[in-house]
Amino acid sequence: MKFHNSLWITLLACVLLQGGTVAGAETPNQTAGHRLLIGYGEGVMELDEKNDIVWHYQQPDIETVYDAWKLENGNVLFCHRFGVREVNPAKETVWDFNVPHEKGKQEINSCQPLADGKVLILDCGNQKLLEVNRDKQVTLSIDLPDGGKNPHNRYMQARKTPQGTYLISYRDNKVILELNADGKEVWRFKLNENDRPFTAIRLANGRTLIPCITSYRIIEVDPDGKITWELDKSDDLGFELLYPVGVQVRKNGNLVVINSDYHHRKGMNNDVQAFEITRDKKILWTLTKADLEKNGKTSVVERGTKMPSHHLLSIQVLGEPEGLK
C-alpha cells in the first residue's frame, strides 16, 4: 500500500509540474477559450480567450446598453437609451435608428437582428414593438398593452420567436406576454410579486427561460406555466447570484449569465460578473472584476465616477446561435 501511495504522489506531481489538472479538480476561473461580446452601462466591449479587452466602443451619447450582438459581417449592433446603432470594427456608424433624446419619456431597451436583415426594436416610450428595415422604414408596428407610466420600468426586452411570435417582458406588471404579428395575445406567464423579468427566451423544447432581476433567480417554464428548472440564491454556486440580466443559452444547453451589480453604483463584494452554468448547476467558468482590470488592460471607465465599470448588461458567446440570447 505504501508503494501505491508513493506512485500516486509521484504521478500527481508530474501532472502538476506539466501544468495539468487532475480530473474532477477544475477551477472556474477563465472563459475556457470563449470570445465574449458584452454590453455595459456606457458601451460595448469584446473580450478574447484570455479575457483581454480587444475592442471597445464608448461614445458620449451612449448609455444603458441592454442588448448587443456581433453580426456575421463582423459589425456590432446594439441598443442604447435613445436608439439602436450598428458600427463596424473601425467603430464607424453604418446604421442608426434614433428616438428623441427626452429622458423620462423615451427609451429603447431591446434590439434583435432578424434573419431577413431587419431589426426588432422595443420602443418603450411609445409602447410599440417595431420591425425596421435597413432603409429605416418601419415594416411592422405592434401597439403593446399598457406597461405603466414610467417608460424605464414598462418593459425590459422583446424577442421574436422561431414561431414568428413576440415575447415581451413587462417589468412593473411582472408578466411575460406572447403576441402574434397582429398584436393578439397567445400566451402569458404571470410572475411572483417580487419578480421583475429582464427577458424571455423561447427554447427549442417549447419552454421559456426567464431571468428575474429583483428576486435574483432564473426560471424555465413550460407552456402550461409549470416551472421545470430554477436557479436562485439558495443554490451553492461559490458566489452570490445577483441581478441576472443578460443570458445566452449555448447549443449544449448551458447558460451563460451576466451577474450584474448595475444598480449598486458604489460597487459590491461580488467579484463574479458573468459565468457559465450547466443544467445540473455546475459552474464551468467565471468572469471577474479582476479579469477586467488586471495587467494594465484597456480600462473601461465610467464617465461620471471615473471608476472601472462593472455594470454589465448583455452577453454573447461568439460562435454560438444568436437565437437563444
Automatic annotation (TrEMBL):
The keyword Oxidoreductase belongs to this UniProt entry's keyword annotation: no
Any Pfam family hit: Mala_s_1-like
Signal as UniProt keyword: yes
Keywords: Signal
InterPro entries per record: Arylsulfate_ST, Mala_s_1-like
Segment forming the signal sequence: 1-25
Protein name: Arylsulfotransferase (ASST)
